[in-house]
């Protein structure tokens, strides 16, 4: 848009210059006619002077001086036109000349690297509007607020009476814990200031819970759900556009999503396996105590070293850094202490560790038990094998596949997993922060 406005401005200046020159030429032609008529008039006066002696010498001098004054005005007009033409000719170059001596765009634009998008914007905005009005009314009363640009009627109801309530017509503010029956549907927004439990096959537009939110199997969310504590999602659920919480977000298999946010996000959670989950969490906490961010040594970007392989049976790619026309392969158990930037496909062998950022113009594939100390950025796809550990962010223009046992980020620090075309999360994956895709996200 800026370039088009500059082009239009330049065209306007050129058209105005042409118009001004045309007017000037017209004035010049008119002045020439005036000069010719003045000369003819002077000749006529001289002829008339020779014929008759009634015209005195004084009158002749006045007429001649008058003609000279007209000629003098014409010269001044011609000089004025030339000056204006020169100014208009160089006027389009004036901004560029000024930029050479008074530079304004020599410094890069300021970008705040600390800025982050609030993943719980809808939750917080919805709560603020409700809390500001609910104190002014009592139970079984209504008030109006604006939601998504439309004025909605909010009805305040006790959550225990929801079975007898003719819901669906208005948005709801539910007081107390909510335990919905199987197959219930809500076509409007719902706020619960307690614990929320939705049975299987429940359909809801949007819901915010102040305490834990539990979704049964095959529930469907049209827009978003959120909780100030934990969220537990059963298998086969559709989580709509956004699913966020302040604490842990547990998701079982075959769930579809667009955006997730939790501290952390854990896949393949089951209530029956709660003891097993506690054992897994205990092992992870013990490993994190040894490798917290404060205790991590800063990467020393020097040389590449290779660890000795335990087995003797190996191929050339297991012992050597192999680079072909379309692929770069790091061998097993490699310790690489520099950033990696490659235009070909990148394959990192199992048990390897990269102390740097990976930037790839094609696919990035991590075999099992690979550790990356920084970010992974790809113009195509990212594939993580089982039990991989990535301390930074994942971003790609294609799809991201994360196998079981992987962990992204660390506790207390928000990291992002962004795959533009799609994201697949297998069981026992742990992500500290944000998951987003424009395509289809699924837990497999």
Short account of what is shown:
The protein has 444 residues and is an alpha/beta fold. The chain has six helices and 32 strands. Among the domains are: 121-247, no CATH class; 301-443, no CATH class.
The biggest sheet, with number of strands, parallel, antiparallel or mixed sense and barrel status, is: 32 strands, mixed
Q: Rounded to an integer, what's the Rg over CA atoms?
A: 39 Å
Through-space gap between termini: 45 Å
Structure annotation, total helices: 6
Shape: flat
Name the features.
alpha/beta; 32% strand; flat; 6 helices; 32 strands; 32-stranded mixed beta sheet; 29% helix; 444 residues
Can you walk me through this structure?
The longest helix has 50 residues. Among the domains are: 127 residues, no CATH class; 143 residues, no CATH class. The protein is flat. It starts with a helix and ends with a strand. The chain is built from 6 helices and 32 strands. By secondary structure, the chain is of the alpha/beta class.
Secondary-structure map with pairings?
Blueprint: H1 2-51, H2 57-90, H3 94-101, H4 121-134, E1 142-147, E2 150-158, E3 171-175, E4 178-179, E5 185-192, E6 196-198, E7 203-209, E8 213-215, E9 220-227, E10 231-233, E11 242-245, E12 249-251, E13 256-267, H5 274-290, E14 304-306, H6 316-319, E15 322-323, E16 327-330, E17 334-336, E18 340-342, E19 345-348, E20 353-354, E21 358-360, E22 364-366, E23 371-372, E24 376-378, E25 382-384, E26 389-390, E27 394-396, E28 399-402, E29 407-408, E30 415-419, E31 422-425, E32 430-443
Parallel strand pairs: 2-3, 3-5, 4-6, 5-7, 6-8, 7-9, 8-10, 9-11, 10-12, 11-13, 12-13, 16-19, 17-20, 18-21, 19-22, 20-23, 21-24, 22-25, 23-26, 24-27, 25-28, 26-29, 27-30, 28-31, 29-32, 30-32, 31-32
Antiparallel strand pairs: 1-2, 13-32, 14-17, 15-16
